[in-house]
## 1
Amino acid sequence: MNPFTRFWNWIKSLPVHIILIGLCIIWLVPSLGLLVTSFRPVQDINETGWWTVFAKPKGFEEFKTYCASCHGEDGTAIATADLTDPDLVQNYRRSFNLLSSLERDIDGQPHMGDISVPDEQTAATIAAYMRRISGIEARPKFTLSNYIDAFVGYRGNKSYQQDCADGTQAVDLHCDVRDLTNPRGMGRAFLNSLFVSIPSTILPILFAAFAAYAFSWMDFKGRQWMFALLVGLQVVPLQMTLIPISRLYAQVGLNGTFLGIWLFHTGFGLPYAIYLMRNFMGSLPREIFESAYLDGASHWTAFYRLAIPLSVPAIASLAIFQFLWIWNDLLVALVFLGGQHPVLTYQIGNMVTSLGSGWHLLTAAAFISMALPMLVFLFLQRYFVRGLLAGSVKG
Ligand code: HEC
């Protein structure tokens, strides 16, 4: 290929690349922001945006304009009045005290020289800044406390670790391993979500594999009709069945149990799972099955020696989609499990109070619930793509 065509091809594919990069950025920037925010201390989250993590702390600008000319940018220039010394700053915790010091004369000269004394608001900001640089109120740039608080379900004004250290633990927390599975925490909700999702993924796929084999390789009356009916069942909206099923569950005592939600997800997963698996198994080469039958293989042998191993790609992509859909499901979990066994989606909603406080916990909670889907996506990417194509290529 000569350089010119190569250059021309590069130019032609440029718009596509730019669009793809743009899409990635649109997706990545907010996720990155959420991730960074989830590791910041509450006070920082409330004061500044996540993109300022590497900027100077709040108050630096004010300090620079008013005080740096004498005290230096780091506050240590005057040896007798080192503003990073906690013992000195201790006396100026309140902006009122600081202001009166700034208005007082030093050796017959105004403290601030030619510079005008800052207003109260600015003085308060500067006082806070001094508390920070002197270490009285030092806080780390990043902290795990949002994650810890969300994980154990801490709802207080300080932090779980702080409260436990002070011995003033919040209600229903014990400050030991028991807290890891506190019913109000994300840790417990994570386990509950796993406990809902795994059987609800395996069961429908297992049954669908049997059904798909029967529909593809066994001859029985009404096969086409039954398959058509199953395909048609896919359009039944889930909401329509909430009332009848929950009444039925109430009669047999399945409301609020894991078994109930497994059965529900299995029922709703089956039509599509059967449809997809049937299309996949039906397109496997007929000859291998026929020669297996000629050699005397039973249907059971053909099923687990031929059909299942050959259908692994379909099973994998189906499993991924079913798992993700159940992991992110709120409606079914809310109706059939509710607060009895809170799952992640349910618990995330509980993190924020109606007054809007506690949303620093939400950032960590969101990441806890995103973690598994992201891992699934990253490690099983090729099945993911195949799953997206499965409907279009076959069928
Ligand atoms: C014109 C120079 C100048 C400016 C501007 C200035 N200071 Fe000072 N500051 C001084 C000097 C000089 C001292 C006295 C050092 C000493 O006592 O020996 C002092 C002392 C202090 C002290 C210690 C007082 C004590 O307890 O002895 C504090 C606190 C202080 N400054 C805070 C500030 C803050 C905050 C700002 C900015 C809003 C500021 N200063 C701006 C020159 C300045």
## 2
Amino acid sequence: MEHDTERVTLARLPSGVEIATTVHTYEGSDDGPTVYVQAAQHGREVNGTEVLRRVHDRLTTGDADSVGADSELVGRIVAVPVADPLTFDRVSYTTPEQLDSVNPNMNRVWPGDSEGTLHERMAARLWEYAGEADAIVDLHTGSPDMLTHVVFMEGHEESRAMAEAFGTDLLLSEEAGDDADEEWAARDFGGKLRVAANQEGIPTITPELAFNKQIVESAVETGVVGTLNVFRHLGLLDEPVEPNGDPTLARNHLGRVTADDSGLFRADPDHAVGDEVEEGEHLGTLYDPTTFEVLQEARADRDGILYSLALESTVAAGDSLLNVAWQRE
Ligand SMILES: [Zn+2]
């Protein structure tokens, strides 16, 4: 196995300072598929970066402590631990207006444009690697109030197989394009790396490991086993896929229960993400903190699996309070 690193300039800031990141390439002893893995395109989502450090140790030292046998790598892995250094430095989700007022969210511009806005240029540079791959894993980290899960495109069988190999307790299929609902278009989901790659025929998954801003051991372990499982599933490592959670298959309808008004939200303490809930089930109360007037009784909008429930209690009108995914076969 050969390991190389390359320092790559993604774009330059107005002052001339270059935005650069490191691309790792792990070249196996025999030919095989190429897998592109990146983390932290939303820079506060740091668990994926720690996952890639642990995967790096596993690949370069053969250290089998946590992940089983030390088989030889076949094919190639290209890994980018910090896909968006701008948001990484700001511990943020988006860039400030001064740097990219048109596309503050890097995960809305794929496959990018080398003559476009800052994020479009950065994505275009990384797409030179991602677009050549046979499969892509785009590691993200949800907020603490979100269940760790993996997203794949509805109807894309090889992406679904990768999600099943990765594991976690929830595999969430998402519709795209004309089949998706209004929210999908309104939120520019067509520019997600996963969606752009699927349109090029590259199987792709988006694991959402819980807890941004913190390296949380349970989320990292799920990510390490899941990432290695994808390599195993695709034949890069000659090892069986390891159990990684108890996956339930569900469908993301993208609809959310949002706050009718601004106030303080108390989530019912007897509910947690991962619970099966029924339509109409009471999940929390939104109230005016000065008068105690109840503004909204938040209820499940369908039968399914509660996969996010707001834990940051001060909410603004329109904020997401909870998400329920449809369970399916
Ligand atoms: Zn993200």
